[in-house]
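One thing: mind reviewing this one?
=====
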Amino acid sequence: MSDLRDFPDASFSGVHHGPLQAGEWITLTDPKGRRHSVFLERGKIFHTTKGGIAHDDLIDGPDAVVIRSKGNVEYLALRPLMADYSVSMPRGAAVIYPKDTAQIVTMADIFPGAKVVEAGAGSGALTTALLRAVGIHGEVVSFERREDFAEVARKNVTGFFGGEHPAWRLEVGDLVESLAETDVDRVVLDMLAPWECVDAAASALVPGGVFCAYVATTTQLSRVVETLRAHGEFTEPRAWESLVRDWHVEGLAVRPGHRMQGHTAFLVTARRMAPGVKAPRKKRRPAPGAYGDDYSGPRRADTPAETTEARDSSATDT
């Protein structure tokens, strides 16, 4: 009887059990914790400073083993998790790291069977997570402006799932110009100017659908949030970042690690209102000067420019 945990290829989980096979990626970790991604091929040798490791010594053997190099150094051999694969995959564009991918999948509420539009595809790291979350009965449509990046993403995604995922369609082009999808549940944007796609996203999203943007800088963050407010038919945007810090734990020596995953990007989410329905205005008064003479960004039609008198009144009002 076959191992029921060994999901068939048709499930496209990216998870494999049983003996290691040629054509798979593995992760080799040395005693200092340094990781090396290795694509297994018969007859090949992975060379390290501590001697070579023959691929044939791993192929047809079990997962999660320790193997010695020719220099008698032990290496831990494991099939990579999706998080391991995403940070070690060949890159065209920079990848979205697992800490942000996890936030996107959870906070944008990516669910089995969802119809998701993504731009840009980059190197495919987020795409693999979206596809695993929606499953074979969902749909992910990825837009990528650059053909070379799209090709890298295609190779990485098909490499992870072991073939073309039936729920994925990759489009080379601009989302604003090419998006024809309707009844979309989620729109996830990883691009330089996501505010340019707000109108297109609003037209595609179902009422209650989630808009999610991943942006690196505070100027991008401000522009996309204010564009969503100016549009008027999205709920008040939520913006945040996540920081991850490891801990060193040895007996009574418990302390924060010396390294941490600090700022990578900001995330912004908002919900689509029903067409023609305006979102309630935020009640909290803006900070003094927030929309003063120096502000030139998007503005709701019913938000007048802030005057000097209004700023002075706001600053003294108790």
